Amino acid sequence: MVIDDPAVKAEVEAAFARYEAALVGNDVATLEALFHDDPRTIRYGAGENLYGMDAIRAFRRARAPQGLARTLERAVVTTYGPDLAVAMTLFRRESAPGRIGRQSQTWVRFPDGWKVVAAHVSVIDDPE
After folding, report:
1. pLDDT of residue 64
2. Per-residue model confidence (pLDDT) at position 3
3. Cα–Cα distance, 38 to 21 (Å, whole number)
4. Spatial CA neighbour of 46 closest among 104, 87, 114, 108
5. Model confidence at 128: pLDDT above 80
6. Which of 30, 21, 16, 27 is nearest to 119 (CA)?
7. Residue 95 or residue 49, greater confidence
8. Residues 36, 53: contact at Cβ < 8 Å?
9. In the predicted model, what is the mean pLDDT of residues 63-89?
């Protein structure tokens, strides 16, 4: 197995950047398109546990578009072979001083492109 093949890594990094832009811009259509449309797709959020794309879609469509801006830190994308990757990042929001967010995503290559199949977001007190 090739870990971090440069071409595969570049593809996932581009998908990750597209996701981030859609997230802070509240581009719900793009966010939905980047998640695998399947009842087995899971997103654990900072305040919600979402099982299946229908629940994820409902959450995204109901979410307020304010306060989404954030700064990423220590983002790491690691690919495993040609079709699997994980993306991990820390994030900060000006509206939450003293707190740091953590985000993890599992990405899989499908015939129609890279999709998130599992995601987890949590926020903790900043240890620094």
Report:
1. 81
2. 98
3. 23
4. 104
5. no
6. 16
7. 49
8. yes
9. 93
- Three-state SS annotation for the chain: CCECCHHHHHHHHHHHHHHHHHHHCCCHHHHHHCECCCCCCEEECCCCEEECHHHHHHHHHHCCCCCCCCEEEEEEEEEECCCEEEEEEEEECCCCCCEEEEEEEEEEEECCEEEEEEEEEEEEECCC
Nearby residues of 6 by Cβ (< 8 Å), 6 or more positions away: none
Q: Tell me if 94 sits within 8 A of 103, measured CB to CB.
A: no
Contact between residue 115 and residue 93 where contact means Cβ atoms under 8 Å apart:
no
Q: Which amino acid is present at 117?
A: V
* Cβ proximity of 125 and 45 under 8 Å: no
Amino acid of residue 88: M
pLDDT tens figures, 77-115:
999 999 999 999 999 998 888 999 999 999 999 999 999
